[in-house]
Amino acid sequence: xxxxxxxxxxxxxxxxxxxxxxxxxxxxxxxxxxxxxxxxxxxxxxxxxxxxxxxxxxxxxxxxxxxxxxxxxxxxxxxxxxxxxxxxxxxxxxxxxxxxxxxxxxxxxxxxxxxxxxxxxxxxxxxxxxxxxxxxxxxxxxxxxxxxxxxxxxxxxxxxxxxxxxxxxxxxxxxxxxxxxxxxxxxxxxxxxxxxxxxxxxxxxxxxxxxxxxxxxxxxxxxxxxxxxxxxxxxxxxxxxxxxxxxxxxxxxxxxxxxxxxxxxxxxxxxxxxxxxxxxxxxxxxxxxxxxxxxxxxxxx
Amino acid sequence: xxxxxxxxxxxxxxxxxxxxxxxxxxxxxxxxxxxxxxxxxxxxxxxxxxxxxxxxxxxxxxxxxxxxxxxxxxxxxxxxxxxxxxxxxxxxxxxxxxxxxxxxxxxxxxxxxxxxxxxxxxxxxxxxxxxxxxxxxxxxxxxxxxxxxxxxxxxxxxxxxxxxxxxxxxxxxxxxxxxxxxxxxxxxxxxxxxxxxxxxxxxxxxxxxxxxxxxxxxxxxxxxxxxxxxxxxxxxxxxxxxxxxxxxxxxxxxxxxxxxxxxxxxxxxxxxxxxxxxxxxxxxxxxxxxxxxxxxxxxxxxxxxxxxxxxxxxxxxxxxxxxxxxxxxxxxxxxxxxxxxxxxxxxxxxxxxxxxxxxxxxxxxxxxxxxxxxxxxxxxxxxxxxxxxxxxxxxxxxxxxxxxxxxxxxxxxxxxxxxxxxxxxxxxxxxxxxxxxxxxxxxxxxxxxxxxxxxxxxxxxxxxxxxxxxxxxxxxxxxxxxxxxxxxxxxxxxxxxxxxxxxxxxxxxxxxxxxxxxxxxxxxxxxxxxxxxxxxxxxxxxxxxxxxxxxxxxxxxxxxxxxxxxxxxxxxxxxxxxxxxxxxxxxxxxxxxxxxxxxxxxxxxxxxxxxxxxxxxxxx
Lengths: 301, 620
Ligand SMILES: Cc1cc2nc3c(=O)[nH]c(=O)nc-3n(C[C@H](O)[C@H](O)[C@H](O)COP(=O)(O)O)c2cc1C
Ligand code: SF4
Ligand code: SF4
Ligand code: SF4
Ligand code: FES
Ligand code: FES
Description:
heterodimer; A: 301 residues; alpha+beta; five-stranded mixed beta sheet; 8 helices; 12 strands; globular; B: 620 residues; alpha/beta; four-stranded mixed beta sheet; 13 strands; binds flavin mononucleotide; binds iron/sulfur cluster; binds FE2/S2 (inorganic) cluster
């Protein structure tokens, strides 16, 4: 066990655990965006930063390992400032309308993303900008990551205007789970974006439609097509949905499924993060097979 | 992993040759060769074996770029097949680097520097003339064979304004032309010749006080014998007699601090790596030198390449490395050729390879060519880049001395730091420490550029004042007056003309709340439009941010936008509010960014506001 101090309170956690683990243990709620329980920390969003006594810069709580005698502050002026700014920088450049935690975080840190000016509209050219170059801005609009939504297959929709570049989908699709490597970060700096090779449409890419990227996406940038369409129609009602646990019928692995049902229709399928077989992951059959079930039920194919 | 390639994209024979140039011909059908029946099908070099060659991705992409002029889907497919890399991953790597193109690009490209020192010497006019007489950036010539692009600092600030010509083909050509003028650049774009390469003559040539520069301009950089006739390899012989611990002891006694910007004690770093039980250890010589205004390492590499090799050999001996990399920015073709030539000679004469000088010590050096990414000079981004990935800095800890290149203990040192080691060994640690001040020992290379009469690299002992240094370079020419000095480059800070008595030492600049950084001293006379100058600094960081973390990725853009509003006078609620935006974003970047780029991106801008009073109508 390692003993440290968080906001003046002593806490003991296992060696190898993070400051975030220590914060949770003493009940301090730390905002996180790029951190995922089932993935290695990418520690890129920096909304979880904390002050470690004696360090020149703030540390990401989600990945910094605890050390004996560490003195951590999670609510100092410096910490609040950086968290607020990170949220403002994100909210002024990304559409956070479907990021579940966003309203709470923005309110908690009194973020004012509007102060950077009105948001620039979607730019279809964003996917192919020349690396290391940009058009000089006049500052009258805040640059955004907004691009037209990508709907190129029947199963899921990619709306990168909502992408905070947390790397989770890349890690889930790549070496941490799926080993498919259909998507990666392309470009650099503000133009960095999630992309397939040469911006190929998903059906042309290596994607196998496991939907594991959708499962980890914290912002709704990746979304079931069913959810996207209901939302577009103003008919997405999460509070009216029921969630039914079942075992996937398609093969013998025995993955747990959570069927999200609205108006007697399955609208999306997830798997619990803490399930020891799936860790939240599924394959195309478990994830999207419900469409076949429903097609059969209604007799329309 | 099932490799899914870009559909309907085949490599051309020329693309295949470009890739094979680096990887050798494919050994079997599995890695892209012809399919044969029989035993060969079972002895494929794919899977793990190929993935172990992932680090060859960047050299392979470079080969396509240099020979074909861009990386086509077919070319990328073939690379991916040979190295078992998914195309989306390789595309992510290719699009990280500004010198690599994933859209068709003509064979002949001129990169025109628009950065800080060149702005002081007419790059703006040069670009305006190109726009008028050739076309805008990226527009093709009438026959489609050439174009030009704006470029960040090319490391030729003493010869500003600078351009770099790149011609793709079977015998690729890369050449810097500096100083450049519009007629010359137009002729390059029309297929003209670049002329001979300039020789490297430091302004202090022949002065007896020179240490690091003593051979530059006097020794033939292409001759090992000449190097030896000028004291070359005396230090290595002495290092062998001291033994690894002895070398490290001298180094600690010398109090040598890193010259790459962070001023970390070199002896401490080496000792930490030498003690690591994990094997192998790696050595990386940081020759990325992309900080605007910096060109000192180029001068050493072009003028005295054997010194870099000898110093690396000593470093490897002391820290138990068998392999070293020189990570050199792609914009240094002349330095690249000089070092390559020197490496070949050193190798053939037994100064590299197995059993160097008859000792039981083996060491090899490989050059890795950067591809237009300032961030790859950051010590962990270098590792990612060498490993064939996007040059995104790692979170620290773990530090490179514990977990560096390929996950192994790694020494990273700047070129100038390494060359200092020769003197430490030859003169002993305490002897070395006699020069300079108590805590800043030895001499320092300063890159003088901008409005000085004789720009160039100057070597002075630590402790001389900024005024002395500017005088050495002939002061501000043309009867103009000095407006400000940019210290340390784009990541540094400004000083006022009344601050020239500052002693140039690590402790002196720290006390004055500025930095020596990589040794940039850029003088700006009263003709410089400072707000526009700041816009360029902001644009530089926006372009060079790796994009990984939010404070830097978005913060650099928001600062640039605020500057643009201040510049146009169309502010969002007044000057004070804009200055607050810059300060608040700056604070977050300094505190919460992953690496030094974001942490320092706003320092020059904030120092111009705080120290020079820019945007507030006068000095603060
Ligand atoms: C954005 C960034 C760029 C850097 N570029 C360089 C560079 O081009 N050359 C260099 O020697 N150090 C560079 N550094 C510093 C290196 O990270 C590292 O500190 C240095 O190479 C260590 O060598 P030294 O101890 O000999 O100075 C850079 C740092 C940052 C944050
Ligand atoms: S659906 Fe699966 S394979 Fe397709 S991009 Fe997402 S994680 Fe990768
Ligand atoms: S698409 Fe979602 S998971 Fe992927 S980087 Fe963007 S926000 Fe993260
Ligand atoms: S500070 Fe900037 S350059 Fe460094 S990791 Fe973050 S985004 Fe990349
Ligand atoms: S949650 Fe820690 S950096 Fe994103
Ligand atoms: S070469 Fe142009 S600024 Fe350095």
